Structures are given as structure tokens and as C-alpha cells.
Amino acid sequence: MKFITFLSFLINITHAQTHHSFIVVDQFGYLPDANKIAVIKNPQVGLDSDEEYIPGKQFALVDAQTHKQVLTGTAKAWKNGKTDTSSGNKVWHFDFSEHTKTGSYYVLDIDNNYLSYAFQISPSVYNEVLKHAMRTFFYQRAGFAKKAQYAREEWADGASHTGDLQEVDDYGRLTKKRRAAVYLFEVTGNTEFQTFFDNNYTDVNLFEWNFAFPFQTANQEMVLYYANLESATPGVASNIRNVYRDAMRNGSENFPSINNFTAP
Known about the structure:
The chain has about 260 residues and is α+β, with helices and mostly antiparallel strands.
């Protein structure tokens, strides 16, 4: 009988510790003196809208080592229960900012017996994040071998894009020539450089696509730089400004994405 009672106790504990992905916390963790808010969501629109989660009345911040509740409170509805159009969710905020003690914790929906994944409150929560963020520059460095002693065995790799491959393709090489022509024309006044640029500037993707691609800002800045030179060919300078203006106004990823955005 005692064994059955103990087994029931273990089952209840397991049930009480069911993780729920709709209790969202910062997986990097929180600084002790920073704002600390768990977001509870109930999807209304989108891929997970067939799932429903109604938060309980009481939430707790729980020490992940001792499983003791160190702070309790309620989750407050965002904008009186309005659905956020950008995420498709109704959300609630459980604010536990007042707790500043370093440690490992999770957020518990007391009534529903759901909990978040564990996270840290610590002055050093961003130390590892910074280290790995900076490593991305090392891992992405072209023409340089990533030795296991620095990159770890699973990320070790040989040098890539060596020699002539650094310039990638004809478009990349022509881009460098156009840029050189602009600056050489500016400092020397030699019209041969001006002529070269005038004859080749429309090959920039900005003009071919009539789209100011966010990942080609260097090319766009180069033609705009030429357009602002006092001795630039007037017709070319005017065309550059007009095309760039229209691309920024009409491209869905440029000004319209800002002008039409409504903050939650």
C-alpha cells in the first residue's frame, strides 16, 4: 500500500512538471537587475492556432534546484486580451523582475501544472552568448583554415574561397572596377574613368531589378556617391537618383515595410 502511494506521488510530480512551449522565457537568461518577463501565448492565427492555452490565475518563479516557489503573481493580459497582428497570438506577461538572486529557475503555471524550460538569472548570462557570437566571424572567415584546436573538432574545416575565388564572379569583378573608376575619376578628373562608369553603371542590380536589395548597399552607395560628384554626367546622376528613389519607395522590403508597419 505504501509503495502504491509513493508511486502515485511520483506520477503526480511528473504531471506537475510538464513543459509547455507557450510559456516563453529568454533562453539566454536574465541579468539580475534587468526586466524579467515571461510571455504566455494563446495562438489565434497561424500554424499553431489549432492549439489552445488558457493561462491559470497564478504563476510562480520556481528555483530549479530546490523546486521551491520564490515569487508568485498573476499574468497580465496584453492590451486587454487583444490579438497581436504580427504574431497572431493573445499574450499575457508574468513579470518577475523583482527577483534578483543568481540561480537557475523556471516559470510555473500553478493552476494548469505547466512550466517553462529552465533559465539562468546571473550577471554572466551573456558571456557565452558573446563568445559564440564572436566565433561566427572566425567560422565564416574565407581563405583561412579552421583548426580543431581553435574551432573544436566538429567545426574544423579547411580554407575556402582561396585565390581567384575570392572575387566570386564577373559581376563581383566588374563591381570593383566601377568603384575604382568612381574614386579615380574624383581624384584625377580623368574622363576615361568617367566614361567607363557611365557605360557600365546600369549593370548594377539596382537598375536591372529596380529594387534596392538590402544586401547590396555597398553597390548602391557607390553609384549614389558618383551621382553627388560635382563633375558627374548630369543625365547619369539624375537617372541614378530617380531609380534609387523609386526602388526605395516601391520595394516591399524598403520604405513600404516601414511606413505600413503597425507596432504591436
